[in-house]
Amino acid sequence: MNDNYPMVPYVGFKDENVRTPITFVAQHQNVQPGMEYEMKPTPIYENQNYVPSGKLKDKVVIISGGDSGIGRAVSVLFAKEGADIVISYLNEHEDANYTKKVIEECGRKCLLISGDLRDENLSSYIVDCTLKTFGKIDILINNCGVQFPQNSILDISSQQLKDTFETNIFTFFYLTKAVLPHLKANSSIINTTSITAFDGKKNLIDYSSTKGAITVFTKSLALSLADQKIRVNAVAPGPIWTPLIPSSFNPQEVEVFGTETPLKRAGQPFELAPAYLYLASDDSRYVTGQIIHVNGGTIV
Questions:
Q1: What is the pTM of this model?
Q2: Domain 7-294 fold
Q3: How many Cα atoms sit within 13 Å of 263 on the Cβ side?
Q4: Which residues are catalytic?
Q5: Of 36, 57, 119, 176, which residue is the least packed, with the fewest Cβ within 10 Å?
């Protein structure tokens, strides 16, 4: 970052040079869901000062889109808390292998499975591989997604509409259906929705619609599984610095991404991960059907 891009230090970090940008270098990636290693600066995925307490000791977690962005931050935090991680990702091999390396440095195991979750058969394969490797499944995090900004609904092609819905909500159904028969009482399902499900976004009509679907999916599934004592909740991020941003928006939009929030900046992935940890752990034993908002102060 050059001096034209103001930064804010993270107070209390061991490395005093760790800072979060208020604005970003103008940049764009041509392919979704984007590559984290190509971002400038790369997202901050962990809190260096975090002290683990064994909240997920020996749990097994499946997370879609766990290779980068929010998924990487959650995967690393969960590993610090004692979980083994199964990461489903599309084709971001460099990002995925880096995340696996970090998880293993935390002393936990990581299984990487590459493929397109829009193929329902992949979900069954992921479950089979998880059971063969770890023998159980305790937590499912549905986190994958794409977005294709358009200025008008007239610009949203039938193919884009299909791609957005199949990636953002169909995959949640597929993976949940495959995992559910293997979950026991006190298991947890966590879905990634979005602030756009609550306040909309004029150039993300189809994306926002899928996030609305995820929100109601969360609430309905929570009611459906309450008798089985399987909890279902969601996290609704606001603007977060992830690969989806430079692969979705033009360079000028990226440059000021997140500055419209009350806190005047985008969030970093590590700032969301504790919300997922709360919902995954026994701390939230009396919480189901709920949405946690992590959005920089926007009231929804």
A1: 0.93
A2: Rossmann fold (3.40.50)
A3: 18
A4: 207
A5: 57
